[in-house]
Write a structure and sequence with these properties.
mainly beta, elongated, 7% helix, 193 residues, 42% strand, 17 strands, six-stranded antiparallel β-sheet, five-stranded mixed β-sheet
Amino acid sequence: MIVECDRCHAKYHYDEGRLAGKASKKLRCSKCQNIFEVFNTRAYEAQPPVRPPIAPDETVNRRHESGEREVTTRKSRAAAAGATRKPGELKLPADLKLSLAVIAGPDAGKIFVIDKPRVVIGREGSDLVVEDPEISRQHAALEISGEQITLVDLGSTNGTLVGEQPVSETPLENQGEFTIGGSTLMLIVTAAG
C-alpha cells in the first residue's frame, strides 16, 4: 500500500503485513521527521463495533447484550491529576530559581525559566514549547507547591518517563531527569539571587 506523510506529503510503499492485525501504526517520515499514523483498513472489517469513548467527566449508562446495565464515570488523567492540588495550593518558592534544561533531543541546549507555579510542557500551545514531533501538544506539566515539585503526565500519546518507567505523576528533585517524546529534560533548582 502507499502511505503519505500528512505534513510534507512524501509518499512511501508500506507492506500492509507489517501492521500485524493492528488497527493503526505510527511512522516517522524520513524526509521531514514528522510522525504520522497509518491505518489498517482490513483490521476494521474484522473488528466488532467499537463503543464511543467516554469524554472526561462524563457519566455514561450502557446496557450490555445480557441486559445488565453498566454506569461508568471517568475523569481524564489530566483532570484527575489537577484535582489533587487546587490552584491556590500552588506557589513558587521565594528563595529558589527553577528552570528546565533540554539535555537531549531536537532542542538540546535550550533552557526554560519557570516563572509560574504550574507550567505545561508540549509541542505547541503550551507554556514551554519543545520542538519535538514525538511530544504531544500538551504533554506534561510541572506543578510547584513551595519546594515540592510534581511532574504530571497530561494523558500524552507517548507517555512521560522517569528513568525507563512511565509515570502519571511523580515528585521531581533538583537535577531530576524525565523523558517526553524523543527529548530528555532536567530540572535545575538554584538559589535566587
